[in-house]
Design goal:
By secondary structure, the chain is an alpha/beta fold. The protein has one domain: Spore Coat Polysaccharide Biosynthesis Protein SpsA, Chain A (Alpha-Beta Complex). It is about 35% helix and about 20% strand. The chain is built from nine helices and 13 strands. The chain starts with 5 loop residues before the first strand and ends in a 17-residue tail after the last helix. Mean pLDDT is about 90; it is low at about 255-275.
Length: about 280
């Protein structure tokens, strides 16, 4: 495991595709099998040894901050960073943290679900002076390939990134280990934009052109972007099946083995009576 102990979670956007016309619903707190979506990310960070989490907030920031604080356990230090330009692209949200970080960091999105094992894999294999992107090469498993952020690689080197790529061999999972250089590259993209705007993909693209972006293959590990009701339903179906497999394995195992499986399922969980399907070993 690397020495990285700090993370950035992007959660400034409105999440209108998932919320629909319900203005009272905050996307990071959409229930997934009875738990807030963001709680799975918090669990994964703690499981990976992250000590401080920087939450980039914008839309309904007051409500978001108050709700997140109720989910943070004592072992994780929260920091809330306001992005006043939250209507712009996610590169602007990351730039809001430029003065709060002093070393390479883990970057993730608040609306992605992923196996906890992916975070550990990424941290173990990160090259700290480059941008490291957790890449899914199992293209047939992607829920909405048209909307996915596509990546073209050569070995572990990222060549191109974009939703409109026609030649690609992997999908961006929304998990990164970033060097501080990412802020310089985002500023360069922003300065070239007429609207003073930039996306995270723009920054990755520019770093790739400088041979400073690499991919870390997640293998068969599972993840899911939660942008729509259909994506949420797909994720819950998958997680229910994992919980069912876990219950069968626990029931047929000996008492000692069953206890270990239960402990693994609840590792890092703020709700110890509820199994965490993303913390289970496959």
């Amino acid at each position: 495991m690397t020495a990285i102990s700090e993370a950035v979670i992007l959660m400034a956007g409105e999440g209108s595709r998932l919320r629909g016309f319900d203005k009272t619903l905050l996307k990071p707190f959409v229930p997934v099998l009875g738990r807030p979506l963001i709680s799975y990310t918090i669990d994964a960070l703690i499981h990976a040894g992250i000590k401080k989490a920087n939450f980039i907030v914008g839309y309904e920031s007051g409500r978001i901050i108050a709700a997140v604080k109720q989910l943070i356990p004592s072992e994780l230090e929260p920091c809330f960073i306001e992005n006043p330009n939250w209507q712009k692209q996610n590169g602007i949200s990351l730039l809001a943290a430029v003065n709060d970080l002093t070393s390479p960091f883990l970057l993730t999105m608040s609306d992605h679900l992923f196996d906890q094992s992916i975070v550990g894999l990424l941290l173990r294999n990160a090259v700290l002076d480059q941008l490291n992107l957790a890449l899914d090469r199992n293209l047939d498993s992607i829920f909405d390939i048209d909307d996915a952020m596509k990546v073209q690689t050569q070995g572990d080197r990222i060549l191109k990134i974009g939703k409109d790529l026609t030649v690609y061999d992997g999908i961006d999972t929304g998990l990164f280990v970033c060097p501080l250089d990412i802020f310089d590259y985002l500023e360069r993209v922003k300065s070239r934009s007429r609207g003073r705007d930039c996306s995270l993909a723009d920054g990755v693209r520019l770093m790739a052109s400088a041979d400073k972006a690499r991919a870390v293959d997640i293998g068969d590990a599972w993840w899911q972007d939660i942008d729509t009701i259909a994506m949420l339903a797909c994720a819950e179906t998958h997680l229910r099946s994992r919980l069912a497999r876990h219950d069968i394995a626990t029931a047929t195992a000996g008492p000692d083995r069953g206890d270990r499986a239960e402990n693994q399922a609840c590792a890092g969980n703020n709700h110890p009576k509820m199994k965490d399907p993303l913390g289970q070993a496959e």
